[in-house]
Amino acid sequence: MKKFILTAVGIGLALTTPAFSQLAAEKIGVDTLIGVPPKTEDFIQEAATGDMFEIQSSKLAMERTDNATKAFAQQMITDHQKTSEKLKGLVTGGKIKAALPTAMTSSRRGTLDQLKGLQGEAFTKQYHSDQMSAHEGAVDLFKRYGEEGDNDELKAWAATMLPALEHHLQMAQSFNK
């Protein structure tokens, strides 16, 4: 009984983490919690919409924030445009049987809409927080798929992208100290 209660509490705590909120396309975060790799379709959905969010939120940051944050935002735009193009090439190349999403998930859209309503210090603080959460989720997603994904080409790509995402996360964390 104690083991069941501890497991239930652990699941409850894990479901409130940023990684959970970013990976809604998966099995309600349980895949993240237990370390199950995402299905190829879910991985592509999350990776592509993550790039969309990174690019659009960072374009806002280029207009609304301080120089240090603008430098970070420019790197996010550049890096995530490259990963978007690479992912598109992998999918359209025919070796991966999945469709690329054409729009962000409603969760990411809601986060972006909230950010659009902010200015000044409030914007900068929220942008930094959003970047940390988004990259925590991305690192988790790419790590799980890179280790155990079901498409070898996409799995290899996910593994090669992981160091850059970990670097992005470290940069985002430095703003939130």
Verbal overview:
It holds the Pfam family DUF4142. This is DUF305 domain-containing protein. Keywords: Signal. The chain has 177 residues and is mainly α. It has a single domain, classed as Ferritin, core subunit, four-helix bundle (Ferritin, Up-down Bundle). The protein has 8 helices and no strands. Helix 7 (120-148) runs antiparallel to helix 8 (152-175). It is globular. It starts with a helix and ends with a helix.
Percent helix range: over 70%
Estimated radius of gyration = 16 Å
Which sequence of SSEs, written as H and E, runs from N to C? HHHHHHHH
Instruction: Write out the CATH superfamily name.
Output: Ferritin, core subunit, four-helix bundle
* Coarse morphology: globular
Helix/strand class: mainly alpha
The CATH class name reads Mainly Alpha
Describe the largest sheet. Answer: none
> Ends: how far apart?
39 Å
> From the 3D coordinates, which CATH architecture would you assign?
Up-down Bundle
Percent of residues in beta strands = under 5%
Catalogue the unreliable spans: 1-28
Count of helical stretches: 8
Overall mean pLDDT stands at 85
Number of domains: 1
The beta-strand count equals 0
InterPro entries: DUF4142, Ferritin-like
Organism: Rhizobium sullae
Protein name: DUF305 domain-containing protein
Keywords: Signal
